[in-house]
Amino acid sequence: MIHFCLDKTIRAGGKAFRLDLEYALTAGTFLGIAGPSGSGKTTLLRCLAGLERPEAGFINSGGEFWFDGLRKVFVPARRRNVGLVFQDYALFPHLTVLGNLLYARNDRRRALEWLDLFQMADHAHHFPRELSGGQKQRTALARALVREPALLLLDEPLSALDENLRDALGEEVRRVQRQTGVTTVVVSHSRREIDLLATEVMELREGHLDPSRHQLE
Amino acid sequence: MDWVPFWVSLQLGLWVTVILVVVAFPLAWLFAFSRRGWVLWLESVFSLPLVLAPTVMGFYLLLFLSPNGPVGKFFLDTFGLRLAFSFPGIVLAGCVSSVPFMLSGLKTGLAGVPASLLEASATLGKGRAETFWRVVLPNMKGGLLSGVILTFAHTLGEFGVVLMIGGSLPGVTKVVSIAIYERVEALDFGAAHLYALVLILVAYPGVLLLNHLQRRGARRSR
Fold first, then answer.
1. Is A11 exposed, middle or buried (0-12, 13-18, 19+ CB in 10 A)?
2. Alpha carbons A33 and A209: distance in angstroms, whole number
3. Which of A2, A54, A213, B178 makes the best surface tag, with the fewest CB within 10 Å?
4. Where residue B86 sits, what CATH number does that domain have?
């Protein structure tokens, strides 16, 4: 279980508001958080990943505190077992697809298995500039998952793709998530994208989670 | 033709370039990523050699580096090293004079590395040192090379500052540009032509490579 309670001031577009939310993610959950731009979605992911420090609260992953405002505990991103897929993919341009995975985990056999799972084995020796948007997204997902993270975070993972590809890749992401059972949080401004991916959906408005959450499945 | 001034210039260029690559990296990092107000002031100080007359820099450097100046006295008392009119002195002067060229290349290179790559590296379990060697450096090769070429080429052509700090001691501080000046003064235009031609032949491939890299970089970012 990953239990978090976060408090942080967000300044966006000339206004300030508080990200103030609490949630308990049970293992294997695929939580989707929908919300308009500037509602705090990306900040939430960055706090969970350890790229930003909340002002107060805690993040507890299976009994280990990644952040505890009271006890001044802050585990940096590199020591949290979290996989983050960035909106712009953030693939290393000087490394091949396989090189990107080997950077994350120096285990060639596992890297090739993950590429196979995302149907990217044929592109293992291609550089990111030689890939289509969908292939980049698959590589970014495989790279995040090759370390077998405790928590997978997806920042608008399908928004840069065209509609057909979005549906196909969305289905693929759901399949892999079910197969691996990795606890996942996806954020997007597109409710359709969230509905396509997540099994549990919340709305985020000006830093607050809408309590009227509902299960899709 | 006396080839010794070329040897002195080459050594000077190499020393200045190597020292500046190391010294300028943390500064370039600060200038590329910090948004603090005082950083702008500091960056402007390091850009001054671009606009100041070499004689202005040379004059103040001479005051600082002379045996009675603060830096010169420190080096003399601590290491027994005399800076004015010595090779270490012109290396130091060359570093001051060429630092904006190295900073410009490194800063451009660093600023071109997307922050998301550094963050991705962190979320993949890598520390700062590993991220620097395996992500930052390979993705700023163009900027690094540009800084190295510009610094080396500028130092090879350095005249005013070197003349004021080092004078013209054969085999010690007499660099090619000073040798050309002396040949022209002696009306030995043939030797001056030869010296100048060799300098041009050394500088041109460097500038050609630099422009090629910039054109390639522009094409990739389109």
1. exposed
2. 8
3. A213
4. 1.10.3720.10
Q: Which residue in A has a C-alpha nearest to residue B131's C-alpha?
A: A103
What's the CA gap between A78 and A70, in Å, rounded?
A: 22
pLDDT value of residue A37? 84
DSSP A77: G
* Domain co-membership, A119 together with A160: no
Q: What is the predicted pLDDT for the residue at B220?
A: 64
| Below-50 pLDDT ranges, chain A | 212, 214-217
Residues 104-123 on B with a CB inside 8 Å of A are 114, 116-117, 119-123
Please report the pLDDT score of residue B221 as a whole number.
57
Burial class of residue A122 in the structure, from the number of CB atoms within 10 Å of its CB (0-12 exposed, 13-18 middle, 19+ buried):
exposed
pLDDT at A105: 94
Range of the domain at A16: 2-81+150-215
Domain that holds residue B169: 4-221
- List pLDDT tens digits, range B159-176: 999 999 998 999 999 999
Residue for token pair 């998301």: B116
Domain count, chain B: 1
Chain A nearest CA to B113, separation (Å): 10
Work out whether the CA dihedral B63, B67, B72, B74 comes out positive or negative.
Answer: negative
The CATH number of residue A27's host domain is 3.40.50.300
Give the ipTM of the model, two decimals please: 0.90
A161-178 residue pLDDT tens: 787 788 888 888 898 899
Do residue A8 and residue A71 come from a single domain?
A: yes
- Determine, for residues B116 and A103 on separate chains, whether the beta-carbon distance falls below 8 Å: no
A94 chain-B contacts, CB cut-off 8 A: 138-139
Contact B124 A76 (CB under 8 A): no
pLDDT, tens digit, 9 for 90 and up, residues A59-96: 999 899 999 999 999 999 999 999 999 999 999 999 99
**Domain end marker among A101, A133, A148:** A148
DSSP B59-101: HHHHHHHSTTSHHHHHHHHHH----TTSHHHHHHHHHHHHHHH
CA distance B108 to A75: 32
Residue segments in chain B with a per-residue pLDDT below the cut of 70: 218, 220-222
Label residue B134 exposed, middle or buried (CB < 10 Å: 0-12, 13-18, 19+): middle
